[in-house]
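User: I'm writing a short report section on ligand binding and want a predicted complex to refer to. Could you take this sequence and zinc ion and write out the structure as tokens? A short remark afterwards would be nice.
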Amino acid sequence: MGPAPAPALSTVHAVPAALRTKLARAKAPETADEPSWNDATEAAVEWIVSIKPSAEDGLGHWFCGRGGWDAEGGWDAVVFSLRLLAFKPNGMIADWRDRLFHLLTNCPYCIEKYQTAKAEFVGE
Ligand SMILES: [Zn+2]
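Assistant: Sure. The structure tokens for the complex follow:
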């Protein structure tokens, strides 16, 4: 097996600093509360849906990282966004949910890591 192919430039991305700050605030016991969770969730889903899926298979591989998705860098944001499963799927949330379900019916590697993400989310 050779090295992994370089990700397509259009799919390279990094978690914005503002989102990282919001996630940290929402996760730290001394600052975590309803408003900070909502703030972080909104920023996370905005960032997730702003990233174009891979041109190869039309999927954003949030969990397994195929197609150039930075699954490691985006892990916290993606795990945090799983809160949205409990929300009414309107607007951006519907978009997010469609992508999640599409992903989970098309990539077995993402399904596998999704189990880990869910366990992590429940443990928070
Ligand atoms: Zn995948």
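A remark for your report: The CA atoms of residues 79 and 120 lie 7 Å apart. The pocket of zinc ion is lined by residues 61, 63-64, 66, 107, 109-110 (CB under 6 Å).
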